[in-house]
Design brief:
CATH class of the largest domain: Mainly Beta
Largest sheet: 12 strands, antiparallel
Radius of gyration: 31 Å
Number of domains: 4
Shape: elongated
CATH architecture of the largest domain: Beta Barrel
């Protein structure tokens, strides 16, 4: 029996000495490579220098709120857990929060601890960035530096849409962070976070960038990482290997309330744009054009001849809005904004929102098989208006062709045309099946079918009859002050 002295067995890069020894011991054959094998060695990163470099720029943030003196003087753990579940879990605390019994006595107010979070120093003269949800509702904000100095901060401004806030402390000569270039950040790149998870100050965690431009339904595209982030990390910096801040840790995905390997950070370039406005005016001004949009699906792209599902599908246009004045129509697909490509619908509100109101911009839309450019003046975003619905209680006059779409329609009366300022169209008396699934409802006024204007029921029937039965039918309709667009799949 062959015995091998493993201490004396050495393997060099490109050799198969160890494999040959194993082959002799086991009687198996070994295939030698036809060329040299290059040995590659990779070492894990060392974050010690980064911690020393960036650590002093990260701060601990405590928020306080006024509460009656005898109202749970030791803090309210139920309320803390309720906020924990709401922010990071998306659900209320199981069983609901337990509240203290009501009291009719008037109690003096005193500051009570509300939460602990993180932030980082933007400028040497005391501007600090954190999350808006950290300071929301706080009566007092306390900032603690790594050298244990504590300051009462003044809230300069907070923007809930982007979840960015800026606070100011009265200090000078502070160690400000370096801002990185998010466009150069790569998926798979090592990144590090510093913060106060669960109140544990100056905690360092590390991981890699899992994805960029992650759309979670919020206003901004997020950087996804597997860096361990927990409650208290909110507002802290995400740092690259050059010691530059590339993001602000903001959210986690969790089914248990704790870290599960998916964390989200706000890109720092977006955050800086917001913070500049907050520092200048205390608020954020965003652009709007007055359209309702949706993703361009494969069915929509095929239906209108776009080719591939890109851009933002215009479902509705607000009457009198910049889009309406520019000539944007429901059913258009916005493919570019100021020369920038719109790959998915969520790209448009971000680009428009970052444009200063009053700016003259250029929209590229795809309509009826061709692209065209439309000049548009950006307005300032405002609260959504309540749209009134027009409906008439008249006896339905069903159209036979409409049944394939799940519709029952009738002609508009002269008074209705005058009220709606329309020359023609058909009123929806009932919408079921495919039409209902597409979003149509009683009282809507259909103005075009398959890109063909319809003035009455007869023209409506003719347009449906001519439509390609193998494809979904696009319908332009009016609801209140909004012209909208829907795609209905016909019954076959």
């Amino acid at each position: 029996m062959l015995q091998i002295d493993w201490k004396k067995t050495r393997v060099k890069a490109g050799s198969f000495a160890l494999a040959g020894a194993l082959a002799l011991a086991t009687g198996t054959a070994v295939l030698a490579p036809t060329g040299p094998v290059a040995a590659q060695t990779r070492t894990l990163p060392d974050f010690t220098d980064l911690v020393e470099q960036v650590g002093p720029s990260v701060v601990n943030i405590r928020t306080l709120e006024k509460a009656p003196a005898d109202a749970d003087a030791g803090g309210n753990p139920d309320a803390d857990m309720q906020e924990f579940f709401r922010r990071f879990f998306g659900v209320p605390l199981p069983g609901g929060p337990r509240q203290a019994p009501p009291s009719n006595r008037s109690q003096p107010e005193e500051e009570q601890p509300r939460g602990v979070a993180s932030g980082f120093i933007l400028t040497t003269d005391g501007y600090v960035m954190t999350n808006a949800h950290v300071v929301d509702g706080a009566d007092e904000v306390m900032v603690t530096l790594t050298d244990k100095r504590e300051f009462k901060a003044r809230i300069i401004g907070a923007d809930k849409r982007s979840d960015i806030a800026v606070v100011k402390i009265e200090a000078t000569g502070l160690p400000a962070v370096k801002i990185g270039d998010v466009s150069k950040l790569k998926v798979g790149e090592w990144v590090m976070a510093i913060g106060s998870p669960f109140g544990l100050e100056n905690t360092v965690t590390a991981g890699i960038v899992s994805a960029k431009q992650r759309d979670t339904g919020d206003y901004l595209p997020f950087i996804q990482t597997d860096v361990a982030i927990n409650p208290g990390n909110s507002g802290g910096p995400l740092i690259n290997m050059r010691g530059e801040v590339v993001g602000i840790n903001s959210q986690i995905y969790s089914r248990s309330g704790g870290f599960m390997g998916i964390s989200f950070a706000i890109p720092v370039d977006e955050a800086i744009r917001v913070s500049d406005q907050l520092r200048a005016t205390g608020r954020v001004s965003r652009g709007r054009i007055g359209v309702q949009i949706d993703e361009v699906t494969k069915d929509v792209a095929e239906s209108i001849g776009l080719g591939k599902p890109v851009g933002a599908l215009v479902r509705g246009v607000e009457s009198g809005s910049p889009a309406d004045k520019a000539g944007v129509q429901p059913g258009d697909v916005i493919t570019r904004f100021d020369g920038k490509a719109i790959d998915k619908a969520t790209d448009l509100p971000r680009l428009v929102g970052n444009t200063k109101p009053g700016t003259r911009s250029l929209l590229t839309v795809f309509r009826r098989g061709a692209s065209r450019d439309l000049g548009i003046t950006i307005a300032e975003i405002e609260p959504d208006k309540t749209v009134k619905t027009t409906a008439r209680n008249e006896k339905p006059k069903a159209a036979s062709a409409a049944q394939s779409l799940g519709l029952s329609v009738s002609d508009l009366s002269a008074d209705q045309k005058k009220e709606l300022k329309l020359k023609g169209g058909v009123k929806v008396d009932a919408a079921v099946d495919a039409a209902q699934r597409a979003g149509l409802r009683e009282g809507d006024v259909i103005m075009a079918v398959a890109n063909t204007p319809v003035g009455n029921v007869k023209e409506f029937d003719a347009a449906i009859t001519k439509a390609d039965k193998s494809k979904s039918v696009n319908v332009l309709f009016r609801r209140g002050d909004w012209a909208q667009y829907a795609l209905i799949r016909q019954a076959r």
